[in-house]
Design a protein that fits this description.
With 337 residues, the chain is an alpha+beta fold. Helix content is 32%, strand content 27%. It is globular.
Length: 337
């Protein structure tokens, strides 16, 4: 049994600090479409982009403008559309995975890490596909390590092969998607423009130690993943972070992707921003944040879903939704900010 290299530190989830896992830059601008499938409009636009020769830096799939910390930004989505299930995978990994990084002393000595050394943190694991395991990993990167079983359980979906395949596909798509975030001056002109990616690289593997019933998987299908979050993502979370990792479990209380998306957007603001505001007004504000077009019944379905979930929202986020005539009104009952 191969031992973990001394230069690597593995931080268990229970020992991780309760840090932010999301950024205002892709939350106040809702780039993760609140559904589980591409809409016909999205499919049409992707086909048109392909006919024009593919993606272009000057022609994003979608864009939306937001304000954050007193500054105005334009957020552009390139390459692929992202759905809320992509966000569930990303932020569940950021919230609950083990962290692997190079030891501080090893870093000072100039030690290098590779996928082969990362793989040895699971002594019974084999890569699920052929790739260069001796490829050097930037020593400044962190690696997230999580079994697909634990990832599915944390997301409150069944830990079965078909769902593992969905997770694999979403990680691949997160790896290829890209945002550009432009800061705008007072005249609405671009002053700076920076890329924002989500996943730098990943490695799926088969860990025989995770086979509970003693029956080995003959196909040796992937059951564990290592993910390197992109440095641009970590920088965006560091500089514009919100939503603590130990709150991520609250998202599993809501079956509707639209309700989850609305709540993540709502929590980008201080509670007083919504206190005494009408629900219909809040939904209009949220819909203005969407980078993509929704269906005709979206507003009605979202309002219905929020009202149905009002008791859970009060328990999780200390907001009451009180009926006022034909509308509802938010009342914050938590601690003063």
């Amino acid at each position: 049994m191969t031992k973990k290299p001394k230069e690597l530190s593995v931080i268990e989830e229970k020992n991780r600090s309760n840090k932010f896992i999301s950024s205002l830059l892709f939350s106040r601008a809702t780039v993760f479409h609140p559904a589980s499938r591409l809409t016909p409009t999205m499919q049409t636009k992707l086909a048109l982009m392909a006919q024009r020769g593919g993606v272009s830096i000057d022609h994003p799939l979608e864009s939306v403008e937001i304000s954050s910390f007193g500054k105005n930004f334009r957020v552009e989505l390139h390459n692929n559309y992202l759905l809320h299930p992509h966000r569930d995978v990303l932020e569940t990994l950021l919230a609950y995975a083990k962290l692997i990084k190079i030891d501080d002393n090893a870093l000072k000595k100039g030690s290098k890490i590779t996928w082969r050394s990362i793989l040895t943190t699971l002594p019974d694991a084999k890569p699920a596909s052929d790739r260069g395991l001796d490829e050097e990993i930037n020593s400044k990167h962190i690696v997230l390590s999580m079994s697909l079983y634990d990832l599915a359980k944390k997301m409150k979906i069944k830990p079965i092969r078909s769902n593992y395949k969905l997770i694999e596909d979403r990680i691949f798509q997160l790896n290829t998607a890209k945002l550009f975030v432009s800061e705008l001056d007072k005249n609405g002109m671009i002053s700076t423009r920076k890329p924002l990616s989500f996943i730098k690289d990943f490695l799926f593997c088969y860990d025989s130690a995770k086979i509970k019933n003693g029956m080995a998987d003959k196909k040796q299908s992937a059951n564990h993943v290592f993910v390197i979050p992109d440095q641009y993502l970590l920088e965006a979370i560091k500089n514009h972070g919100y939503y603590y990792r130990l709150e991520q479990h609250k998202m599993t209380h809501y079956n509707s992707y639209a309700v989850r998306s609305f709540i993540k957007w709502m929590t980008t603001h201080e509670p007083n921003f919504f206190n005494t505001k009408r629900l219909s007004w809040a939904i209009e504000e949220y819909m203005a944040s969407l980078a993509s077009i929704t269906g005709a019944s979206f507003k009605y379905d979202l309002k219905k879903g929020l009202i149905e979930a009002k008791d859970q929202i009060e328990e999780d986020f200390q907001f009451q939704l009180i009926a006022k005539g034909k509308d509802h009104q938010f009342f914050y009952i938590g601690e003063p900010c």
